[in-house]
Amino acid sequence: MEPYHTNSLHLAAFLMAKGHPTKVTGPMNARVFEFDSPTAEDDADAFYQNAPVVARLYSSALNDLKKLIHRPVAPNSNSETRNERPTSR
């Protein structure tokens, strides 16, 4: 299974709110969110069809991602891992 990748902050927050852990990779100006979950792509499709998600989980995930992408990365590091959030299914 290939990981699902996106550079959309809002899609990444949605996937995190659905319970998918993410890894952030790439240089500061081109962050990519990687989801190593078998259902991430299906949930991404659902995002574009206006699927519901718990608002507080989405808001919290969005704030966490904003903090994560604006935090400086160590020179020898090329990725950061974000812990899994509780699922709202």
Structural features, described:
The chain has one domain. It has 89 residues and is α+β, with helices and mostly antiparallel strands. 37% of the residues lie in helices and 17% in strands. It has helices at 9-17, 40-47, 55-70; strands at 4-6, 22-25, 32-35, 79-82. A four-stranded antiparallel beta sheet has the order 1-3-2-4, with helices on one face. A hairpin with a 6-residue loop joins strand 2 (22-25) and strand 3.
Structural class: alpha+beta
Q: Report the mean per-residue pLDDT as an integer.
A: 84
- From the N-terminal CA to the C-terminal CA, the straight-line distance is 23 Å
Radius of gyration: 12 Å
The largest pleated sheet is described as: 4 strands, antiparallel
DSSP helix fraction: 25-40%
Stretches with pLDDT under 50, minimum 5 residues: 81-89
Number of helices: 3
- Widest sheet: strand order? 1-3-2-4
**Percent of residues in beta strands:** 15-25%
What's the total count of β strands? Answer: 4
Looking at the structure, what is the overall shape? globular
Overall number of domains: 1
The SSE string, one letter per element, is: EHEEHHE
Brief characterization of the structure:
This protein has helices at 9-17, 40-47, 55-70; strands at residues 4-6, 22-25, 32-35, 79-82.
Characteristics of this structure?
89 residues; alpha+beta; four-stranded antiparallel sheet; 3 helices; 4 strands; 17% strand; globular
